[in-house]
Amino acid sequence: MSVKSTSAGPTLPFRDVVLGALIPAFIFSTGIGALLPIIAPYSVERGATLATAGVVAAMLPVGQILADLPAGQLAAKIGDRAAMLAAGLVAALGFLLAAVAPSVITLAGAVLLVGASNAVFHLARHSYLTDVTPARNRATVLSTLGGVHRIGQFVGPFLGAGVIYFFDMGAVFFLAVATALAATVTVWLARPTKRATADAAPVSIGEELTKPRFWRVLSDHRRMLVTLGSVGMMVGAIRGARQQIIPLWGEYIELDPTTISLLFGLAGGIDMLLFYPAGRVMDKLGRLWVGVPAMTILGVAMALFPLTSTATGLALVSMLLGFANGLGSGIMMTISSDISPPEARPQFLGAWRLLTDSGLGSGPLILAAGAAAGSLAAGIWVASAVGPLAAMGMQRWLPRYSDHANRTTRRRAGLID
Predict the structure, then answer these.
(1) What is the superkingdom listed in this entry's lineage (predicted)?
(2) Is the pLDDT of residue 41 over 90?
(3) Mind listing the pLDDT tens digit for each residue in 400-414?
(4) Confidence band, pLDDT 50/70/90 cuts, at residue 9
(5) I want to staple 121 with a disulfide (CB 3.0 to 4.6 A). Which of 78, 87, 314, 334 is the partner?
(6) Cα–Cα–Cα angle for 81, 84, 85, nearest 5°?
(7) Confidence check: pLDDT of 276 > 50
(8) In the 8-state DSSP scheme, what is residue 204?
């Protein structure tokens, strides 16, 4: 059980949080964002068919899913900060290998390596921020992390477009090499002033030397991972579907690519505006005050897409979609930090990320299955139902495992009067 924090200080201390994680996260995400739109066309340029190009692009999330569990093991063994440094260097190598890849197979391997590095970097900075941030500020810090990740992936494609204009498509990979190295250097320069929060229980030398093995962590927390972890998978699934719904439905109602891109950017812009208020609400009132409405509204917004047939209608529901996703910024990272055992945090977060990333990959498949069956609208409605289900699961299971679910659980845990 947590204890009431009496420590005071800035919510976002510069060296530990801003320089140690937020700035590197923004820089790293910018490189990934620049890469995302060009993987498929660059593969075609290198001789791949459209189908093969799709497989190459899929190597990024595949690499991330495959590396989730090893990422937790690596961070537990060498430390969060060292894992971020290693991931940044390996990502730079992957980007460089992609830039000079002599074949499509080599390019696919390089993209897989980048995806794996992204998993390690993301998990390590998540674990690091959980460690250095007091629980009273945790949601604000982690929602800000989610926000800078979104901003980086929003800015990246524009930087990539500028590089392509002045050079060529391959030069974007060299831009990504520079961002990965810059993120690594920033982490190295940070040199955090603390390793544990005032809320963390002290760990003895004996406990430090006998940290639980990964499979023991899974066994000890299997009920939590099955119940609350299934909620994480559902949140990942509806968010994965959200990423594809605007392009797919825009194509279905025969909008031109420029309009679809503008609507996608509009939703992303609204999404980015809400990360800080969402974090403050979670810290003040509890996680359920953000998680439940965010997932409910996200499901409602998705269910409205098949009812639109014009650019104006699609713009309105896209804005609602961006609002809902932005409202839930950082919610899964915050919940997983709240429930992670301090003595085995990286291993637990690796297992949690495997669940959420698997859900993220399944979301687009639900839409694709509907389209393949002859009804994209049916696929959208099935995916939209996942949102309210996730909200109900969160409402039921989160108070059981987290002292920070709402004000009632905080009062019961002695965190507030």
Answers:
(1) Bacteria
(2) no
(3) 999 999 989 988 888
(4) low
(5) 87
(6) 90
(7) yes
(8) -
What is the Cα–Cα distance from 108 to 365, expressed in whole angstroms? Answer: 21
- Neighbouring CB atoms inside 10 A of 194's CB total 11
- Domain 214-417 sits in CATH at 1.20.1250.20
The percentage of the chain sitting over the pLDDT mark of 70, rounded to a whole number, equals: 91
Q: What is the pTM of this model?
A: 0.84
Residue 212 DSSP one-character state: P
Please check whether residue 32 is in contact with residue 91, taking contact to mean a CB–CB distance below 8 angstroms: no
| Tokens read off for 228 | 């609350």
Q: Which two tokens stand for residue 240?
A: 């994965």
What is the number of residues in the chain? 417
Buried b (16+ CB within 10 A) or exposed e, 293-332: ebbbbbbbbbbbbbebeebeebbebbbbbbbbbbbbbbbb
- Residue % of the chain over a pLDDT of 90: 47
> Using a CB cutoff of 8 Å and minimum separation of 24, what contacts does 262-265 make?
263/311, 263/314, 263/315, 263/318, 264/318, 265/154
Q: Domain limits of the chain?
A: 9-194, 214-417
Q: Give the amino acid at 25.
A: A
What is the rounded distance in angstroms from the CA atom of residue 264 to the CA atom of residue 318? Answer: 7
C-beta of residue 363 within 8 angstroms of C-beta of residue 271: no
**Residue range 239-274, pLDDT digits in tens:** 988 888 888 888 889 888 778 878 888 888 898 889
The CA-based angle 17-358-181, given to 5 degrees, is 40
Instruction: Please state at what angle helix 23-35 crosses helix 104-132, rounded to 10 degrees.
Output: 160
Q: Region 63-91: what's the mean pLDDT? A: 91
**Whether residue 204 has pLDDT greater than 80:** no
User: What distances in angstroms separate CA 86 from CA 81, 245, 262, 319, 408, one per listed residue?
Assistant: 9, 35, 37, 38, 42
Q: Which two tokens stand for residue 348?
A: 């637990």
What helix, strand, coil percent values describe the chain, rounded to 5? 80, 0, 20
Amino acid identity, residue 330? Answer: G
- Domains 9-194 and 214-417 equal at CATH topology level: yes
Domain 9-194: CATH class, spelled out: mainly alpha
Average pLDDT over residues 369-390: 90
